[in-house]
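Request: When convenient, would you put together a sequence paired with its structure tokens?
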Amino acid sequence: MILTIAAAVFVFGMLVLVHEFGHFITAKMTGMRVDEFAIGFGPKLISRKRGETIYSLRAIPLGGFNDIAGMDADNNTAGERGFCEKPVMSRMIVILAGAGFNFLLPIVLFFVIYATFGAAKPATEPILGGVIAGMSAEKAGLQEGDKILSVDGQPVATWIEFTDKLKNVQAGEDILLAYERNGVTAEVTVEPTFDEHEKRVLVGVQSSIVYEPKSIPESFTLAIEHTKDITVYMLDSIARLFREPEQTENLAGPIGIVQMSGQVAERGFIPLLNFAALLSINLGIVNLLPVPVLDGGHFVNLFIEAVRGKPLGSKAVAYTQRVGIALLLMLMLFATKNDIMRVFFK
């Protein structure tokens, strides 16, 4: 439990810090007055004022905010330094910077991983790097680190040979696996199951991972490519939510993310950094959705202002924000329902 909480605070804290720093630094660079830079919500735990800005750490580590003067044009106390008084382009930059920094963070994290530890790739040996909880391999007693020796009496020397033999197995058809653990050889019977999503039979095992050293230039290139590939995959996943409504069952909320943080942290610091990078990309994409109250919604309002030459009326903005809040609350409730069902009823 302590590891789960610590991992969740670390991941959420890093993502929020990076996101809000993006807004903060661009607001400062464009001459806006920032009254407070806060990590978390609720009561202040630590608060220090430097110059004109208060820097605070608050009790609930699930978000953060920048109090930029003049966000509300009717209550602008900063004059020409107020958000509302700056050119539309400057305001667009500040609004997009939070998500932009969320896309920069995974590039930095992946670069550090590649440059320090190398690029992960599946090991060639048939050694189990992970056994998925609740699936047939785990139920049969297989564990991480077990080396598969044969499938139904047929020897295997590589992971590819092992998976190739599994491809010919039918769902419900028992297979006999010989394996080695701590120098002791044993056999176990496993019954594969058919996975509707993968469209193939699975036993619930993953290959072990080895790290291939990379140079600094290679690490930088790989970090950018990996971030791009994940972003494209996540955009496709969001599109599938609209094409295939049943995919919404996979949505996770704060409870699910906290649980996953703990599970990933148990595998080590590198997997936790990878997980943080994935969440950062996800946060960046979600914040750019054209939903009122999200950064993407604010950007749409600014784009409309740029086209029509004047901002939307306060009533129109207030109405769209109420709609946006309602949509986000419904999405949060649905994701929380998924979390509860996944954590407590499966």
